[in-house]
Each structure stands twice: as structure tokens, then as C-alpha cells.
Predict the structure of L-histidine N(Alpha)-methyltransferase.
Amino acid sequence: MPEGSGALAPARSDFVAEALNGLTAPRKSLPPKFFYDDAGCTLFGAITELPEYYPTRTELGILRDIAGDLAALVPPGAALVEYGASDEAKAAILFAALDVDAYVPIDIAHQALTALKSRLRWSHRAVALHPIAADFLAPVKLPAAIGAMPKLGFFPGSTIGNLDPPDAIAFLRQVRTTLGVCASLLIGVDLEKSPDILVPAYDDAAGVTAAFNLNMLTRLNREADADFDLDLFAHRAVWNDTAKRIEMHLESLVAQSVRVAGRTIRFRAGETIHTENSYKFSIERFAGLATRAGWHVARSWTDAERLFSVHLLS
Ligand code: AVJ
């Protein structure tokens, strides 16, 4: 999302404050939501097409395979509330299989939502559209028009894996409060597997994920008055077996100082900025997390190779 564009973008001062907060911490980090400016959204779209990045195509395959099961489990006339709806490809599978009367795509990328709205206006006229440009991690007020409809939450992509477990539980609890206790939630969850598969999925041979990660520094240079030299930072993706997560970092290749919004940020050679976690689960570990958030796992599905999973929570 091109932050700074439109009233809904966080004010520059919020963006700069969050950036400085992360970069002045003892262990430097930046929030993964910073990835998604226009260039970042385009790069993420390219990532989903990469041979090494299996999650998107695997989840789409599962959704197509379970569409018939879902039709028997979701009440007619439902409102589909999608968290992190950068494109409608996955929701369109649900529109085709379920009797959905309304669609509430929630995404921080204002530009992506506008494009999605114009695409959907022609392809799914029967579905009432209520896009919400917001950071879905914050509490969301649903439109009054869907108040009486059965709610199906949708949180694909294993974006739940971007959250540390306590935050994931808090988010799932918040979704239950927003949608109501009679709602269901369809959620995509990436499964733990060999680092031989996981690491290349986040460090592809073509360097697209490296460009996606480094683009965060380009965004800081543009929007936080910074002077990062991208040639002095390197993309790193590592498997943390203790935490069961892929970590993405930007490593400073030399000892250096960088100006950010008038402040001097010092880096030791080898010091990193931690930019993202992608937690990976077993079916059982995810069920435990969902249960701690007050949900019941009604159904779980995986692909034949058990790379990815989709769960219907109620
Ligand atoms: C969009 C957060 C699900 O964690 O796999 C892709 C983002 N990061 N490649 C993920 C991402 C590096 C993706 N999510």
C-alpha cells in the first residue's frame, strides 16, 4: 500500500515512529506490514508464482477440493469477512461454492482494495461489497448491512504465522468478538516441514524474496528520510527450529551508520534487522492455539503431500 496516500494511510509520523522504535531497540526489527507498499505488493505477487513458494498454489488447490464440503458446513446467505484480502482469487472459490450475499475484504493496501472492488463489481454482481482499508490486526467495525447475516471469517495464506503465538491467540480472540460467537472462521495454516523446503521458499534462487525484503529499506529511504545503502545489506532467511519459524532478516555487511528521520542508527558488521517471522505448525499445535483463543476446530484439511492445511473453526 502506498502509505501517505489517502486518509486511511497511517500518518507519516506513525510510520516513522514505528520505524525508529524498531531500529533503536537492542535487537533491531521492523514490522512485516511495512513490506506492503506498491512495490512490495507487486513483489509479493511475484513471490506467489515462484516454484519454491508452494503456500499459495497449495492453499488454492485445497480450497477447490473442499468447496463441496464447505457448502454443507456454511449457512446460506453468509457474509464473507476476509482478513488481509490483497486479491480475490481465493474468495472467488468460496463465492462459487457457497451462497455468499456479502463480501467484506479487509486490507491495509488501500490501492489493492480499490482494484479488487472494480474487478469484483463486474464478476460477482450478486455479492454486496463492503471493502475496509485498515490494518486487520486492529479491531474492525463491521458494516451494519451485514449485521443479521451468518458470518464466515476467512484468513488465508498462513498470515497467522506472521504473529508470535500470544499475538496470534489475541488476534483469533478478537476475530471471534468481531464476527460473533455463532460465526465460523476458515483459516490457512502452513505446516512444519524440512528446512530444505522451507528455506528456499523464503530465499528463492531468482532473488525475488530478497528484493521483497530489501524493498523495506527503499521504503524507509523514501518515507522516513533515510539513507540506507542497499548494497551494504543482505537478505537472510533462516529456520529457527526452537521457535518453529522461518525468520527473515536484513544483515548489515559492514559496520555502518545510517540516518533515519534525523537520527543516526549504528550497525555492527553482521548485525541484522529482523523483518518477519513465518511460524509453521503441526495440525495438533494449531488446534491447541485455536482452542486457547476460544475456537473449536470443526474440520481440518491438508493437501496430499501435507505441505499446507485449511481449518474451519466454529
Ligand atoms: C503473506 C505473510 C503469508 O509469511 O509466507 C512470503 C509473506 N514473506 N515470502 C508468508 C512472505 C516472504 C507470507 N504471508
